[in-house]
Amino acid sequence: MNSAVRLIVLNSTKLGDSSLVLHCLCREMGRRSFIVTVRKGGSRALYLPFSVLDAEVLENRKSDLWRLRGVSAAYPLNGVRSDFNKNAITLFMSEVLWRAVQDGAAEEGLYDWCERSILTLDALEGSFANYHLRWLMELAGVLGFSPSFESLAPFAGENLQVIGDLLSAGFEEFLVYPLNGSRRSAIAGSLLRYLSAHLEIPLNIRSLDVLGELY
């Protein structure tokens, strides 16, 4: 049986010379992997992390790895793909989800929130260097943990007061809150430790170092 699906790419694994395994987030199926054929000489830009795709799923009762065909971009994401810094943020966010959400998991509301967050980043103009911090706090809430001053305190270190300010800030105020690169990275690390403790999964996010160098 074939069915239409919209999905968000979290990561991909090369399979031979002409195929990719896409690790994705779907509204209907949660976290799931699919195989897709990439034509020789064809661009793989369509399958970058946090791309939002429409496709047809070819179900296979003999395998858990179903195939995609007729893949197309649901949104061009020109704002993200034309900005190196925004691309780096999407790499970070997609890696967090890839490590935090297990295969087969289907958290209610996670897909819709994630798609909105991608489109928000795509549309943002001006300052967005703090966007991934806001996103981490929102992710905790979507996954069922309500971050608060008290619950974050054991992970905050010397940044507890700043984290408290950010928790109470509105969206626009959050984005322009003055932070230098080292403090921003430290706060991201605190939020990742908070998520790791609640998920009981070590979130060793390699792309955080890239963000630290950029900001």
Q: What does this 3D model show about the protein?
A:
The chain is globular and about 55 Å long. It contains nine helices and five strands; from the N terminus they run E-E-E-E-E-H-H-H-H-H-H-H-H-H. The chain has a five-stranded mixed barrel. Helix 5 packs antiparallel against helix 6 (160-168) and helix 5 packs across helix 8. The mean pLDDT is 92. It has 215 residues and is an alpha+beta fold. Helix content is 45%, strand content 21%. Strand 2 and strand 3 (30-37) form a beta hairpin. It folds into two domains: 2-73, Beta Barrel (OB fold (Dihydrolipoamide Acetyltransferase, E2P)); 78-214, no CATH class.
What is shown here, in short?
Helix content is 45%, strand content 21%.
The overall strand count is 5
Structural class by helix and strand composition:
alpha+beta
Spatial ordering of strands, largest sheet: 1-2-3-5-4
The major sheet is characterized as:
5 strands, mixed, barrel
Number of domains: 2
| Annotation field: number of helices | 9
Share of helical residues:
40-55%
Determine the strand fraction and express it as a percent band. 15-25%
Helix and strand pattern: EEEEEHHHHHHHHH
Shape: globular
Low-confidence stretches: none
Rounded to the nearest angstrom, the distance between the terminal CA atoms is 47 Å
Mean pLDDT: 92
Rg over C-alpha atoms, rounded to the nearest angstrom:
18 Å
